[in-house]
Amino acid sequence: MPEVRMSSPQGKWILFTTVLGSSMALLDSTVVNVALPRIGEDLDADLAALQWTVNAYMLTLAGLILLGGSLGDRYGRRKVFVVGVVWFATASLLCGLAPSAGVLIAARALQGVGGALLTPGSLALIQASFHPDDRGRAVGLWSGFGGIGAAVGPFLGGWLVDGPGWRWVFLLNVPLAVVCVPVALRHVPESSAGGRAHGRFDVLGAVLGALALGLVTYALIEAGEGSWAVVLTAVAGVAAGVAFVQVERRRPDPMMPLGIFASRQFTAVNLVTLCVYAALGGFFFLSVVQFQVVAGYSALGAGTALLPATVLMLLFSARSGELANHIGPRIPLTVGPLVCATGMLLMLRVGKDASYPADVLPAVLVVGLGLVTLVAPLTATVLASVDVSRAGLASGINNAAARAAGLVSVAALPLLTGMGPDAYRSPDAFDDAFRRAMVWCAGALVVGAVIAFTTVRRPAPDCTRPECLTHGSVTAPPLEGRRARGRLR
């Protein structure tokens, strides 16, 4: 049994290094969008290259995050966490030094691999190191500080872009890793699943899953060309997806056991997740560009503009979870997406010379209220819909589904809205496409609300309860690990 207490110096060092490591990945998932217009100008990149700058990271992160957790269980959670931090920092250095868009995209894909190693590893270290009496508090602090990192990220990114330049958005990770790695090696105890880790790693499943996402993403981004190569890529992506399902069905130790989807509640909530995070992925990708290209905001102003939504989540996500415990998840998971959809329709007011108090802030506040309403109940319902022994797996699948939804959305929305390769260089062209995109995002949220209303039911009295109650992540639901039984009424 782990014996590290929160009050001990070692406990504080463990919390410090895990928060610092996970914040690196969380910061990059929120700040890069702010830098996109400057990256495009500096590297003479078209819109497709900017899409890949975001999607290359999400592709490898979503495809490998489940495998990353399994590697930690087998080879040692501290070891894999440290490898992930070093890998992430090295890839960040390559991003910061990238001489071209192609090099930047490749380095971003490598960043996602590092993120897939360190993100689940940081939570696993906390759960494996702390005494059971302190574990819930430690996880709560970890998720809370991570939420603060998510709030600071766009502000910090905007300041860096306007000041020393966009490359420092990536280079900042290097000194953070220089601090994080020695502290982890000195103060964090090693742990693994020991005899519970058995079987082979599902490398084939991970490769097929990432390949399917990558090929479909490529086809969506390049679909405007209308070439046979795009059609063949799309067909190959679908074929890779079918092969992934077949491999997962037949393997004795699959990365994503398909039997978990036998729970209708789990399947339904993941469909809601796909709709919600597809909309959010498109919203956060396009909004910061709209603020800079059309409304004339600085990078700092664009990054700060969305801060109220994250602050609302930090302040009220725990209370939203408590409310869902009393009234059940169906109402929050129906109302939350509808509120978010209203906020995205309010974004139609954001045009040239938009006033922040009158045009931007009301929309951001409404989106934030919608997120407060739905994110915590969504996580709780995912955990409650499976056996306690599969809570960590269920959370990982839900987190990966959210990231995959954002990935596809960033690839598909420019196609659906008619954005050309140079749209972000033309305020009028981008503004027209942005307005159409907000309608698409609102529509996806309405579909999610309908699915929730018609399929989500009150969970069983004896079920798993989330520990990450305070959070501010807007790119994916918070990760949860193995849980003791609780009650979700």
UniProtKB/TrEMBL annotation:
CDD domains: MFS_MMR_MDR_like
Entry annotated with the keyword Nuclease: no
Localization: Cell membrane
Pfam family, one: MFS_1
Gene Ontology biological process: response to antibiotic
Keyword Transmembrane helix: yes
Residue span(s) of domain Major facilitator superfamily (MFS) profile: 14-460
Gene Ontology MF, one: transmembrane transporter activity
Domain of life (superkingdom): Bacteria
TM regions (residue ranges): 49-68, 80-99, 105-126, 138-160, 166-189, 201-221, 227-247, 268-289, 295-318, 330-348, 360-388, 400-417, 437-456
Membrane topology: Multi-pass membrane protein
Keywords recorded for this protein, A-Z: Antibiotic resistance, Cell membrane, Membrane, Transmembrane, Transmembrane helix, Transport
One GO CC term, this protein: plasma membrane
Entry-linked PANTHER family: EXPORT PROTEIN, MAJOR FACILITATOR SUPERFAMILY MULTIDRUG TRANSPORTER MFSC
Protein name, per record: MFS transporter
Organism name: Streptomyces griseoruber
